[in-house]
Fold each of these.
Amino acid sequence: MIAALARAASFAMLAVAGRDAGDDAAFVARARQGDPSGFDEIVHRHHKRVYALAYRMLRHPQDAEDVTQEAFLNAYRRLDQLREAESVGAWVCRIASNLCLERLRSPRHRAEVPLPSPDLAPADPAADGETAETVARVRAAVAELPPKYRLAVVAYYLHGHSYDEAARLIGVNPRTFKTHLYRARQRLASLLEDPTRASEEEAP
Amino acid sequence: MKCRRAETILQALLDGALPPNEAARVRDHLAACAPCRARVDSLLLVHEALSTQPEPEPSPDLATAIMARARAERRLARRPPLVPVWLEGWTLGSVGLGLAACGLVISRHLVAAALPEELTAQLAGLLPVALVSAFGLFGLWYYQA
């Protein structure tokens, strides 16, 4: 019974995903023909996802909004170069990922200010103090990861816990993606076990 | 199974990406290895902390701002260039400087001929500045509109 329900749910999700992809392709076609409402729809559908990725990477609301705008405008200028019109959302995410990496690697990147961010708050307010502190520590420690590891963690936990989907979003091959994700979590786990060890640990 | 190999496999187990036979081998290893059991606990905590993060929300006018910028780009792209491409850059700069110099000389003569002497000295300097400013404002208006 449960298996049948799960199968039905996954068919329904696939149907929704297929319909969304079809809509995206239609909006891209409209935008390419010069109809501004086509691009408006693309922005409307995907800007929250792109913003969330940029925010988790840069941990600064204004920087995240700047990157989101820049990513969509880059996409708009290069819309003719997009090969898979149905993947326009993933494409913009990929552009935003690269912009975030560029910013993080730039020597002029502003020092990250630890924000009173909703990201750092524990999800369950009833969690005991120790658990809440651990959760906050893990989330804050993501900012200490090297940018490519941080990107892997952000993409995986933001976009459906799928290696292939997350790898596609940030434009790396799934094998490399898995390595980055595993190493990132290794470092975070080491930090929990022994805060002084995490920075020294080098994964194999 | 060695602990180092187990660590990689533990992560796949965490993600539900491990075939059943591999999962059984990891469980056997865990039953006999206290450090790996501790590692699983830490990895689980990390996984939980990252899985339950609330999704950050952008400001409500972000989408509108992006759409407006895209429309502005579109208008700009459709506008014919103010000057031909071959005139841009250094060519345009040189021609502009030449014109400004001519304008300066001519305007001094015109002003000197048309006005009483006491006003000439003050206005002669202002006229070319006004001409250049008007030209600049027109350029700004053209590209912003």
Amino acid sequence: MARINPDNCVGCKICMTYCTVDAIHHDGKKCYINQEECTECYVCLRQHVCPRNAIEAVELDGFYKQFQHVMSDPVENHGVTGVTGRGTEEVKTNDVSGRVKKGEVGICIDMGRPGLGVYLRDAEKVAMACAQAGLQLASATHTPLGALMPDLSTGKLIDECHDSHLLSVIIEGKCPESNLSNVIAALQNVETEIDTVFSLGLILRVDANGNNQALKCLDTLGVPMPYRGKVNVGLGIPLSLD
Amino acid sequence: MTHSLHRSGDIESQKKDFNWFMYQTKGVNDVGIKPKALAFIAAAEAVGSENWGDVKTGPITRFSSEEIRDNISDKSRIRGVFTRREQVIEFLKNIKEQALGQSVVITGVLSEVLPACQAAGVTPHSINYSLGVWGKKDLLPDEVTLSITTMCGHHMIPPKFVKHVMQQVGADRMTPEEGAAKLSNFCYCGIFNQVRCAEIIKDNIETL
């Protein structure tokens, strides 16, 4: 946990410029970190921003603080998935893992991105809306948030984690391409019920030209066609042909 | 993680912004990756990758190439930046010829990336398409700041620091390139495009 040692702080406010979520405040004399707002991303620590070395790392007490740090600091590997960053594989090894197959669509919801952060109570709202719409949510084997979700069929998170503030966390799942419209419509509804943002990605197997007809449903729903993509170019071995 | 996918800003500017990645699959090809990682780095450097790094050490804008290479382990993630389609094509041709067996991902504007794949003779397998930002977008910083902060998809770049750099450049205390390098150092992965960032700073120092 990051904290500012009041004995060393001179109240210069330099550190406030370096907080990713504006969790560093000034009480009139000295700076302090609001622990409810802090995401434990450790940017203030790693960048050595304090000229008086007042910013300190204190041992993370308990599972939720550790989860918060691992999710918010990309240097850390997630313990189960073994993946750095937000700990998910999504499209990057799909040519080998074959997680998203032909006829399926992977949904990748980056809660809190870009840059606002997310309280897990808002992640729960989105996960539950998607599950209700037929998204099969990924388990803890594939995505860290699954560890906080005792029943993947509902998307409900354990109550104790609701007030954890993370720089971001990914809700991941998949469904048949035929159900994509339902999931997108559910997201259109729930986006008005949360106090943050999310960035949305759709993972699809594509033809040799990089196309998939499943995207056509976006027009009907009034969602602009995507112009950016993360293209897995199919050089992994063994290559999944499913 | 989808840390390269959701970049924003002027589309013409994004067309000069590509990310390359080497990925290992858990339980399949995630042991003894260092020789393959070094081959990827060599292929990227051969075509002038403007930035690259390993999240376990940091980017070349902050650490030496030797230090990053020496620290590579099976937990490493090797990735970097290109600014031209031609670099992507030559990189993919080289990696395909070596048949290293690791997954390769190129992120960028699809009207640039897909023709590059075709020219290199590789066939896209899967795509993660960006559908942009949803929710309370009125809470977000301005578009110019976002076009810089989203180049570190883990959002290690504080928006207030972007403003600070802009002000420093505006006051002639640093050049746009120096400002871009400072911002690049926040992105441990090495996927921040400091060349594009310097252009954005130059184009916008009057407005911030």
Amino acid sequence: MGRQFDALLANNTWSLCPRPSHTHVVRNKWVYKLKRHPDGSIDRYKARLVAKGFEQVPGIDYFDTFSPVVKPTTIRLILSLAVSFNWNIRQLDVSNAFLHGILDEVVYMEQPKGYEDHTFPDHVCYLHKSIYGLKKALRAWFTRLSQQLIDFGFSESKMDYSLFTYNSDTLRVFVLVYVDDIIITGSDSQAVRYFIDQLQNVFSIKDLGELSFFLGVEAIRNPAGLHLRQTKYITDLLNSTYMLGARPLRCPSSSGSKLSSTAGELLENPTEYRRVVGALQYCTITRPYISYSVNQLC
Amino acid sequence: MHSPCKLYWIAVKRVLRYLKGTIEFGLLYTPGTIAMHAYCDSDWAGNPDDRRSTTGYGVFLGSNLISWCSKKQSVVSRSSTEAEYRSMAQTTAELYWLRMLLQGLQITLSAALSLWCDNVSAIALASNPVFHSRMKHIEIDYHFVRKKVVNHDIQIQHISTQDQIADVFTKSHTVNQFCFLRDKLCVCLLPHSLRGVLEH
């Protein structure tokens, strides 16, 4: 908790000012999370200060919230190209990504609980940088990152705004951004290393090395190529639906039968149904051939 | 989706049981040429409730499947040719988007775009400016695909229904057909002979 607070101060997230009389002041809370190692032992206790963004009023506190996210097709296209050109694919993770965003609107927030300023207990925080929970947090972060990449000489693809490219006669580097996960690949691994260093100078970024796990998809590189699969995601899904012990089938849909939405008894728990179908849709990222069966369920 | 019945839950369990047997399957990307080809297909009036058809397509870059779709069309088609033709238009749009994406990356394709379709009349409709009394109401798709074909931007070629890969996105199959199509899509286990290489 103290560490998060120090990080916020070091980041120059806000300055204290007297309470404004006409503007709405957003409240906040601390959210606690237990981080575990893969074996279940406790890694660390994590505290995060979040603003109650749902109290913000559209048109007054914020305007556009749209932020592009990368399309799965673009990811597969880039991965396919990297395999064909035999490039290294590296993966980066941005810590406290949303705190890097710069707000272009005026937002006031109450002082965080337990860390009120002794001299000015009645003052409020005037936010300079974005904070988790704000409606614009994602957009502010994305704008900051894309501006930074453009300053490094990258250009934004017109076809998919979360894809950035660096092209010169001898060098080609592609960067894909999914919120705080970044994939970077290029024709020269030295140059890729250089760009990672440049980014690390500006943001706190963890270099996770060779691409191995991205958006729930495992990537295994070997001399034959790149294998993309969702073993962990599917195992978790089967576990949560108590299907791990089920007898496997060789085909996902029975040929000849068609589902009609007007026939039969209604399900008692449609929410669970929707959750599972949503999860199955996510599984189609690496399982194109089940998309027909899953499509029939929607 | 808003009020699912029990039959749907049984279908969900089928998919889950299938996944149970293929937990470690995934897409395998291998080095190949930078050329793009696509397969498009559709069923006709497959939905028993509103009689709309389903578009299915798969786009390959070299030997790697990068984009696919299995989606119910937004309007009812009056003939199977029309349904196939709409799926052809959707696939062409996807191919063009991907090509523009590649152009943005300054990567040029080593061959022209090719599109494989198993419906002879839909191909005829795309390549020849013939008047067809049953097609007069689909003007926009008609002009969109035709223009690309006439300009030789895209080559539409015929493929037999047995080899039509996009079939997997439009209908259910028997186990044998299904496994055949799955292999064609390069969905497999991590090759066994190479696991040793990984461990070293």
Amino acid sequence: MLVLIGVLLVVLGFALRLNPFVVVTVAGIVTGFLGHLSVTAILNAFGNGFASSRSVTLFVLVLPVIGLIERFGLQEQGRRLIARLSGLTTGRLLVIYQFIRQVSSALGLASINGPAALVRPLIYPMAEGAAERRFGRALPDPMREKVKAFSASADTVGQFFGEDIFVAIGSILLITGFVDTTYHLKLDALNVALWAIPTAICAYVIHGTRLYLLDHRLGRMAEAAGLTGRTDRAEAQEAGR
Amino acid sequence: MIKVEWFYWLCGAIFLAVAVLTVADRTNAKRYGSGAFWGLLGAAFIYSTFVVHKTAPAWVLGLAVIAMALLVATGRLGRGTTPGPTRAEQESGADRFGNRLFVPALTIPVVVIIFAIGLAKIHPGGEPLLEKSSETLIGLGVAAIVAVIIGFVMLRPKSPLAPLNEGRRLLEAIGWAAVLPQMLATLGQLFVAAGVGTQVGRITKNVLPDNSLIGGVIVYCVGMALFTIIMGNAFGAFPLMTAAIGYPVLVQHFHGNPAAVFAIGMLAGFCGTLCTPMAANFNIVPAALLEMKDKYGPIKAQIPTAIPLLACNIILMYVLAF
């Protein structure tokens, strides 16, 4: 039971809002000692864990180009583009994006790293631009944070509940690999993947509804912050610039 | 054959270049500590290749990782005051380039699709062109290179170092969160090595009600979600929960359809992934990338989806698998 202290440390550390990087390192060392691992074994675990998980950090490669085009006005252009598509509100845009992300993940494109390659440069500026068109450019911080949070969530939910429909994804291979070797079954990967479809539909309906309702929520937040909707003329000026 | 390790080296080289630029950045009050952090990270990326190939000891890398944690813990990691694009810069750029600004950004998904779907199937001379199971990652790496070339030629920034400096600006905003997912992967492995999983599995078994199908389904799904919240990913939870309940109770005793039980069980775990800061690459890094004030913002947006979705999974498994 003692080894569970590591888990407790993590929970406490996150709850107390200590630096997660430090919390995780300390919890790892403590768990290693409680599990009677030697110092070398713990250091080896840190080394091997780092080396074998580098793929999650590979998104860094796209940061130079994204930073560059942002400097030359990518986010501004995102706002202008969305200003011309007046039917596309923040919520509707994210509903569409989640659909694209979910379907493309189901076709095997889950690991494109949506947050770095798609959300930061394209989706978030347009989602924010749509909110600014409706409520003016001086959006209060809580509204910006809300748009950011839901832009990120549309990507994550879309990826999670799309990727399992693709046969050659890690989780499906883990299921068939583990079950076939441990219990001597012969599971067909395609069959397992097909059983992910009902949940995928539920995920799209549930999160899509919440994304759709985001527009109302932003409206309420704007009202509470004393922002009124913008006049049609201001909107037309913005769009026609 | 194009290998994914080449792109890890490129990534390492970017970290090393960021380290050099950081040390030279006088606007950063913590430039030496920060430079050491990024430098260690870059060196660790390159050294890792030899660890993966088992030609170098892993403990050296372990020491480097803990040194990085010490730099963070003692507050030595900071950022410079390189300003982001001003509104004037953005507007004049948008006036000049218009929708062409989207070209480099859209290059990335297009190139990834070409690699993941097209080039992945090509075997010149009987050998696959792209390293197996890393096709999308290789695509992402190539896409980044192609996009930066297109961006550079199109925009003609004044300094040839502009992409690197802009990349550094974003990377400094992300800070230590960039490496957190790798730390959590390590922690997961340590949890397994120390036997945390077996303990949690034992506890779950004890709460299992006798001879109740719906009870078994609920414990399996909720257990997958909770265990995933602790471990940070459903892959760690799946073998343990399946050995404790999924196979012996749901498949053997109640004759559930194994494909449906396991597929939906895994997705119940994914509901847990939506709720946990332990899944940093999905939940914390996006917050850092979007420069959010509340690093838990995405999780807060996802929990109200995760809970009804978990309930859906329980119902779907109960109805479809039995």
